[in-house]
Structures are given as C-alpha cells and as structure tokens.
Amino acid sequence: MTDTPLLSVRDLAVRFRTGAGQVRAVDGVSFDVRRGETLAVLGESGSGKSVTAQAIMGILPRPAGEVVAGSIVYDGRDLLAEDPNRVRKLRGDEIAMVFQDPLSSLNPVFRVGWQIGEMFRRHRGASRRDARAAAVELMERVGIPAARRRVDDFPHQFSGGMRQRIMIAMALALKPRLLIADEPTTALDVTVQAQIMRLLADLRREEGMALVLITHDLGVVADVADRALLMYAGRAVETGDIREVYDHAAHPYTRGLMASIPDLDAPRERLTPVRGAPPNLLDLPSGCSFHPRCPHATDRCSVDDPVLRPIDGRPEEHRSACHYAEEVLAGEREPV
Amino acid sequence: MTDTLTDLGSPPAAPVPEQVVRARRRAGSGRIRFASAVIGIYVLAAVFGPWLVGYDSVATSTGDRLLPPGSRTEDGSLAIFGTDQVGQDLFAQVLQGARISIAVGVATLLLAGVIGVAIGVVAGWYGRWLDGALMRLADVQLTFPSILLAIFIAALLGPSVVNVVIVLAISNWVTFARVARSQVLVTKNRDFVDATRTLGARSWHLVRRCVLPACAAPVLVVATVEIGHVILAEASLSFLGLGTPASSPSWGVTIANGRNYLGDAWWISTIPGICLALLVVSFGLLGDALRDRFDPKLKNL
Amino acid sequence: MSASPSEPLLSVRELHTTFPIRSALLRRVTGHIQAVAGVSFDLRPGETLGLVGESGSGKSTLARTVIGLEKAASGTVTFDGRELTSASPAELRAARRDIQMIFQDPYSSLNPRRTAGQIVAEAWEIHPDVVSRSRWRDEVSDLLARVGLDPSHADRYPHQFSGGQRQRLGIARALALKPKIVICDEAVSALDVSIQAQVLNLLADLQADLGLTYLFIAHDLSVVRHVADRVAVMYLGRVVEVADQEEIFQRPTHPYTQALLSAVPVPRPWDQPQRESIIIGGDVPSPADPPSGCRFRTRCWKAQDVCAQVEPALEIRLGLHPSACHFAELLSAAPGNSPEGSLTPGG
C-alpha cells in the first residue's frame, strides 16, 4: 500500500490555557503528507503552524497546551491513541524535527560529535567509537567542512548556518521517514538560507523521506515544496499543489500574502497588503475569522463559517475555505 | 482612508504560543495575602498600640514583679502577657518594641536603599574603573562583620536608635547596590535606551526615565526580603547591649532582660521572641512570594 | 533618471568603527574587530539609500556610528555642512534632532514602563523648544494619527499594542523632532509579511508628505528594491558595490551582489526559468580577522592570486557604476563559471 499517506492529520484541535482564558491555537486542521513529498505549511505568527508541528511531535508545552480533538495517523498508527512509550520510540526513530534556533536546541556544554553520536548510542546501542565515526560521516553528509577535525568542537564554535547543519545531521541520524522543519532558515542570512534549503531538498530526494517545511516566508519554499497548506488563526484556509495555489490563489488571505511580498522584479509600486492585524485568538471574529480583514467579505462571512472545499474549475486537490473562492479566483468580486 | 491607516483600533496581535505559555501566572497570591495580613496587624499595633496602652520606661511597680500572663496587677488591670522583673506590663513593652523594630527596619532600608541604589546605578552606568572601585568597596564591606562594626560605632558614639540605623544601613547597602547594578547593566544596552539617546538625552534623563524605573520592582522585592534580616539584626544588637538603649525597649532589649529569669518567668523572653519570629517569617514569606511573581531571576540572592 | 545632483545632506568619508576584543580572564585588549572598515557615501536630500548586507557586514554598526551611538575610530560624518565626529556634545545633540532612527525590534525598542504618549513626547521633554508642554497632547494625537494609530490609545503601554502597532509607535517617536534624515535599521524585518507591507507603505507616505531622507538598512533585497533610490551593498565592513537601484538589480557587476541577488527567494520561481542560481558556500568570515586583499575572495568563485594581494578599489568599472572587484563583469558574460551546486564551503 504505497498510496496511503505517510502522515494523516484529521480535525486536529489544540487548546492552550492562558492567564486570560483558553485559546484554540489549532482548530480542526486536516492534511496528509505522502511518502517522499514535501509539504509547505505557511502562515503568519499566531496561525497555529508551529503548534501543529509540536502536536505531531508530541512536544506541546505542558500543561498549558493539549490536543483536545482529532487524530494524527502515522503509517497506519494513531499517535494520539497508542501507548505513549511506543509512540515516543516511533517519534525518535521515524519522525525527526529541526527547529528555528539551532543554538538553543544544541546543548552548549557537549561537543557536537558527542551530541550527534548520542542518537546512535541511545537508539542503536552503538559503541562510542562507532557513534563517533557515524557522527563524522553525517557531518560530512550535511556539508560541514573538515568534519573529522571539527567533530570535537562545541556548538558556540560554529556559525549559525553550520549549527543548523548540525541540527539537520542529528535529525537525519536515524534515517527518519518524515522530517519536520520549523522555520529552519528564518534566523539565517539569505546566502546561507539558500544553502540550507538546497541541502534539505537534496537530502529529501536522496533519502526518500517526506518533508514538512513550516515557514512564514512564501518565497523560500517555492522551489522545493510539492504542496502548500496555508493556515490562518488556527485553521487551514487553502491547500493544494504549490504551483496551483501560488498561481491561482483562491482564498483572499493567500492573495493578500502574495501581494504583500515586494517583487524583486517590479520595483517601487505600492504594495497592497492585507489590511489590519492578525486576530486575537482569545476573541476570534464570528463566522470566517478572516472576514474583518477581507476585501471580499459580505454579511454571510460574519455568520457562516466556511469549510475547506474543492473549487469549481480547478483540480480536485486544490481547496479553499472561502465562500467566494470561485469569484476570488476569477477576480469577479472586486474588493469592496 | 489610505491603507496605512488600517491599523486603527485593531486588537492586539494574536497571542502566539510562547506568550500563551508565559502568560502571567498569579504566583504566590495566597502567601502574599497571608503575610501582608500578619504584617498589617503588626504595623497597626506598632502605630496605635503604644498610644492606647501607655508605656513608661522608668516606672517600676515592685508589687507586680514577674506576674505570669493573664494575671491582674495591683491596680486591677489585666496583664495579658504578664509582667517583667520590675513589674512593668509586658504587653505594653512588646507594643513599644514593635514600633521601634519596625521603625528601625524601615529607616535602615530607606538609608541603605538610597545609598545602595545610588552606588549601584553609578557603578553600572559609568562602568570601567568606577564600577571596579565601587564593587571592590562592596566586597570589602561584605567581609567585614557587622557586629564588629556595631561594637565599634557603639563604643565611639554610644548606643542610640540612630546609631543602630547607621550601623545596619552600612551593613546592608551592598545587596541594594548589587541588584541595582545588575538591573542597570541589563537595561542600559536595551534598544529603548539607545532610542532615547538618539533623541539627544543626557545621562541624567536616561537614568531617571529608563534605568531607575526598571530597578524599582527588584529593589522593592529585595527590600522586603531584607527588612526581616534587619529587624532580626537590630534585635541581636540590642540583645547584646549594642543596639537601642534600655529607654527604648526594642524586642531585643526585652529578650535580654528576661534572660536571667528564664527558669521562673519564661514569658519575658519568649513572648517578644515569638513576636519577632512571626514578623521576620512573614516578611520572608512576602519577599519570596513577591520575588517569584516579579522577578524569578533574583532567586539566588 | 533620479533627482538632480544637489549638495549631499549627509556625507560619510572613510569611516572606521572598531571594537576591542578582550581576553576573558584579564580583560586585556587582544585584538580589534573592524566592524566598519573605511566606508564612504553621500545621502542626497529626499532620497532613499538602501544599505544591504548579511549579518557581520557592519551595516547596523555603520548606522549606529552615523547617529552617534558608537564612536568612530576615524573618518568623518558631515551633516548639512557640520562635521559631527569632531563636534562638541552640545553641537552633536543639536544635530541629532535632524537625524533620527527606527529600530528593528518593536518589542525592545520601546520603554515598557511608559505610555505611548510619553514615549512620543519624550523628545520634547529633552528639547523643550520644539513643542511647548501645553501643545504636547495635541501634537501626540497628530503624530499617532499620522502613523496610523488611534490617538485615543496614547495612554496605553507598549505591551497593549501588536508588533505592527509598536513599530508605528517607534516611527512616531522618530518623527517627533521633525528630523530631516531617518535611519531605518531593519525597521520591517521583525514583522509579519502583511504587516511589513503596511509599514513599508507608511514609510513611503511619510517620505512623500514630509520630504524625509531615508538611510534604509535591510538584509532583505526585495524590500530594498521596493523602497530604495540607490543601493549600497556591504560585505565585512566595506561597501563592495553602489549604484542606482535599477542598475544594482539589473546589472550587478560584483560577484557578491550577484550571489546575494540570486539567493533571494522569489515567490514564483517557475515564472523565471532563466534566473541564474548562484549558491556561494561558507559563511561570512570573522571581522576580527578579515581575509587579506579582497574580503570576499574566500567565498568567491572568481578569486585569483591577485585578489589575496591587492584590495580592489570601489571605482566605476565597465563604465557602469562603482564596484570593488578586480574581475567585475555582468552576469550574462560569465556563463559556465557559475558555482552551481557547490555546497561545500571554500577554505
């Protein structure tokens, strides 16, 4: 069975308790990740994209955050229903994660080779010598120059880009089938960012693993992702093949985001950004939570909460959570 | 309306998870309420007590010597806490003692706080050799036993409430200086200080508007923790005869008076001792709770 | 194509800013970081000069030196005919009224213990002659409205605003002294894309309304392309190429500029199949120990022996614009030399 998805998230809801009340950081999100594909999860701060990743990895901050509904099925097994110990092992062996800030994710008092080797020692029972050799091999694999010499360096002796490579090496150690990267290049310079995206794309192809790329930057993933999932205020608002979604955006939020990005080839025209600011999750607007910022909103939008649905005339896979997706796409509904 | 005006009245941004997790917890509300209530009772007693129950430090009443708590004195009044070796009402003495202890504590903290914060801010703000010199001075101060200093000053100036305050302030300014200095070091490199500097502000403006407000909360927390120590230190000095003179009977004086009668009149030393302990513990509790709420970083002080 | 060349408002010549490196134990000075190593540029009235570069390029230090937050080791900053690096503190304070700055982080750049109104009015507290105290309330309201904030929110504290609103507040503070030059130090980098676009539009409106001159510092080239009239590219404390923005983006001649442009993520890469992909290896070297000769040579695919020996001057090359490369050439002229796929850093 190769056509069943590797990861299938259904109606996932995550609740956070705050001093001021409870928020639904993720509210009924469903998506699939197929074997070997790259899914880009896109959204601004507060959209719930990172919380979704934390829920999949089982690393929600406790006790504030909690999965309250839905299922996360990995390779036929529901991660939320199964025995926690087996799930923990599965998450270590088959699902790996790379974070935004490599410096705070690495332990500053251990040598990087030791930290990479720990994956082999703990999960594979490798000897110290074998683990070290494997660590050097991995460091070479992720493009760290003079790996043999640098294996005994401490994290602070590496640059930001090199540290991110070390994090990727650790994530790759156990040959995961799914790699989740949460803003992996946000803290890096553009030239280094390009290196890391290239590395992730190469590794995915060579290892045949599936990749989930979480980012706020619609540009960085365009080259490497197969499909896109856009999130807003804890909901999925648009999904589909990345080229289809970018070229034929059928949700006003997606369109607004695209219009907010200054174009490198069309200088000095006035940007047409999404107006207003992301909503307060404690006090979400009624109906479609995007309606107060939406140029297309009608009375219906403040009452009737749209669901993610296929769009007439577009591929079945392309879905949008907008009542007026077809009109938005056709440009028929002029912004009011 | 241009689109640059569209932020008008929009609500604050959605709380992102980190903010959600860090959402202000009302840490230690119970402790704060309890300790404040106890301290409040002490303060009321210290302010109004001696006024309601008169106390005369030179009066003696030989017939009423060493009466146990709850006895009736010769003039028919009730001695709730008993009487001491010269027949004075212990309750009145304890109330008077509360007034002296709290007054000494507050005065000491004000003096130590002003000196300490001033030195800490100057050291942290100007840095370099001035910082080095002032902080070495603080180190020297810490290695010098305050009892020794007290003996020295008492021998030189004689025991008085003012001298006690001076001695204790000299032994306590260092904590304030360190807290203020570390707060200055954290604050002075913040962007908003640079932003104010680019407006053309001079040092005094920056210290007053940016640095001192940032010091306020941690300094208050430290003051609450320290006041217990100060009251205890005052009692110790008075117990040793180096503190307040017998004419102003602080708790330490009363405890010392009872020392020779522990066998047959336990209450003379014990009751002021309990009063002292309860107040010191309450301040400690309040200080800890305030620190947990406002500034967990200070935990090691 | 741009405005007629008039007297520069701000003129920076051979500016150097260095930081001492101290040993951990004895605090002895063991070396120097050359954060800004000989930078010259002019800022003309009403224009926007974009200053781009990666971390370690010294662009923020340059801005901080121009505005006086760091001390220049050598070189001059001349504003409106007055030389600032040798000016008295009083002269400097007066000049600072005309040069203001917008900071990157909308969270740490606002004093958390003061209200929006107090933050904006602080400038007048320092310079009482600009706005009399009785007019503060009205002027605060005007400024808040001007940057798109609700004037009735003047009594709110910074934490009660969103990130975008806080950045608007930072802009209002920078405008309080009616400056001629505003330095935007990564002013939109910390914002979400949609908010970033709103703030960019606001900055454009303010420039048009108030005739402001911007020194716009950013690492994001698409943003710089959008706002700048001219662009200077910095690498390891030096300017490597400077030109009108159309020139820089269409006809870059320095390899670093070419690589930087190529690395900018574009939203629809499939629309530009002809776009060259140059991925340079490695990281920016440490400014404490910069390479000899050309500072970019350790990451450059064109580097020859001469690059290690002779530092290329920033001068007009190919008859186009100033570029600091011995082998300056247009990109289309260099096919086959593209270091495509070279992931292993040089060195």
TrEMBL record, chain A:
InterPro entries: AAA+_ATPase, ABC_Ni/Peptide_Import, ABC_transporter-like_ATP-bd, ABC_transporter-like_CS, Oligopep_ABC_C, P-loop_NTPase. GO terms for biological process: peptide transport. The keyword Lipid metabolism does not apply. One of its GO terms (cellular component) is plasma membrane. It holds the Pfam family ABC_tran. Its main location: membrane. GO terms for molecular function: ATP binding; ATP hydrolysis activity. It is a peripheral membrane protein. Residues 9-258 form the ABC transporter domain. CDD domains: ABC_NikE_OppD_transporters. Gene3D superfamilies: P-loop containing nucleotide triphosphate hydrolases. It comes from the Bacteria. Belongs to the ABC transporter superfamily. NCBIfam families: oligo_HPY (TIGR01727). This is ABC transporter ATP-binding protein.
UniProtKB/TrEMBL annotation, chain B:
It is a multi-pass membrane protein. CDD domains: TM_PBP2. One of its GO terms (cellular component) is plasma membrane. InterPro entries: BP-dependent_transpt_permease, MetI-like, MetI-like_sf. It is found in: Cell membrane. PROSITE patterns: ABC_TM1. It holds the Pfam family BPD_transp_1. Residues 98-287 form the ABC transmembrane type-1 domain. Keywords: Cell membrane, Membrane, Transmembrane, Transmembrane helix, Transport. GO terms for biological process: transmembrane transport. Gene3D superfamilies: MetI-like. Coiled coil: none annotated. SUPFAM superfamilies: MetI-like. The chain crosses the membrane at residues 32-53, 100-126, 147-170, 266-290. Belongs to the binding-protein-dependent transport system permease family. This is ABC transporter permease.
TrEMBL record, chain C:
The keyword Transport applies. GO terms for molecular function: ATP binding; ATP hydrolysis activity. Keywords: ATP-binding, Nucleotide-binding, Transport. It holds the Pfam family oligo_HPY. GO terms for biological process: peptide transport; transmembrane transport. InterPro entries: AAA+_ATPase (IPR003593), ABC_transp_ATP-bind (IPR050319), ABC_transporter-like_ATP-bd (IPR003439), ABC_transporter-like_CS (IPR017871), Oligopep_ABC_C (IPR013563), P-loop_NTPase (IPR027417). SUPFAM superfamilies: P-loop containing nucleoside triphosphate hydrolases (SSF52540). Residues 21-261 form the ABC transporter domain. The keyword Membrane does not apply. Signal peptide: none annotated. PANTHER family: D,D-DIPEPTIDE TRANSPORT ATP-BINDING PROTEIN DDPF-RELATED, TRANSPORT ATP-BINDING PROTEIN. Belongs to the ABC transporter superfamily. This is ATP-binding cassette domain-containing protein. The lineage of its organism: Bacteria, Bacillati, Actinomycetota, Actinomycetes, Jiangellales.
